[in-house]
């Protein structure tokens, strides 16, 4: 197994000090940026202008998680801007295959996300077109919610599909990841761990990232 990736979510950071908050987790593999449009999810966060500024403010690769309607139209500009990975929701995408191609053409990795109640089965066919599969372990919209262990079955299935199909898809998990839950997620086969409140709620965010990485690798 390659070393686990840790992606702190700036949803739990201070939005008025994003450059400093990114610097506070400098050793992270990816910086997770939650874009919410108040339609796909009942919350509104930030959009492309903030991502463009963040790209100038940090060297950490940005992992943009778009919880928005009509990602076929709105996601490619995040890739063009320079985001490392652009994740769209399977429930919102009209043509996920074409969208993955568009994101690749714009120079980013392409991610596909499924909400806790969305079955993986419907998306197995398109998985090979994507670089990451983000399994939501809370209902998308807010940080600080409790981890839903029932999604781990989907993680195990995804792990098996990726390994047996020799796919280059990273399995990512998002929601409620902390010192209490990271090990069960790692055991189920997660490669990349998003953590918001567990990192930015800690006294030392960098230390929290390092601790999660150690636990995930154990
Ligand atoms: C929720 C977001 C998550 C959120 C996770 O919709 O997608 O990325 O920041 O926050 P925690 O780790 O606090 O559950
Ligand atoms: Zn997220």
TrEMBL record:
It holds the Pfam family Ribul_P_3_epim. Signal peptide: none annotated. InterPro entries: Aldolase_TIM, Ribul_P_3_epim, Ribul_P_3_epim-like, RibuloseP-bd_barrel. Keywords: Carbohydrate metabolism, Cobalt, Isomerase, Manganese, Metal-binding, Zinc. Binds 1 divalent metal cation per subunit. Gene3D superfamilies: Aldolase class I. Coiled coil: none annotated. One of its GO terms (cellular component) is cytoplasm. Belongs to the ribulose-phosphate 3-epimerase family. NCBIfam families: PRK05581.1-4, rpe. Catalyzes the reversible epimerization of D-ribulose 5-phosphate to D-xylulose 5-phosphate. This is Ribulose-phosphate 3-epimerase.
């Amino acid at each position: 197994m390659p070393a686990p990736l840790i992606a702190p979510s700036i949803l739990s950071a201070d939005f008025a000090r994003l450059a400093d908050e990114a610097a506070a987790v400098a050793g992270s593999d990816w910086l997770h940026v939650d874009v919410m449009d108040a339609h796909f999810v009942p919350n509104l966060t930030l959009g492309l202008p903030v991502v463009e500024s963040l790209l100038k403010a940090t060297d950490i690769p940005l992992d943009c998680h778009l919880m928005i309607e009509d990602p076929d139209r709105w996601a490619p500009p995040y890739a063009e801007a320079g985001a490392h990975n652009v994740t769209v929701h399977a429930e919102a995408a009209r043509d996920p295959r074409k969208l993955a191609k568009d994101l690749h053409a714009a120079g980013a990795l392409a991610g596909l996300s499924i909400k806790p109640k969305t079955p993986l089965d419907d998306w197995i066919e398109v998985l090979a077109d994507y670089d990451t599969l983000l399994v939501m372990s809370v209902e998308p919209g807010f940080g600080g919610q409790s981890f839903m262990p029932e999604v781990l079955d989907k993680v195990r299935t995804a792990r098996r599909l990726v390994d047996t199909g020799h796919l280059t898809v990273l399995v990512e998990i998002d929601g409620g990841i902390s010192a209490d839950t990271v090990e069960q997620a790692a055991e189920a086969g997660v490669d990349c761990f998003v953590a918001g409140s567990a990192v930015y709620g800690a006294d030392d965010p960098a230390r929290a990232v390092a601790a999660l990485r150690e636990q995930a690798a154990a």
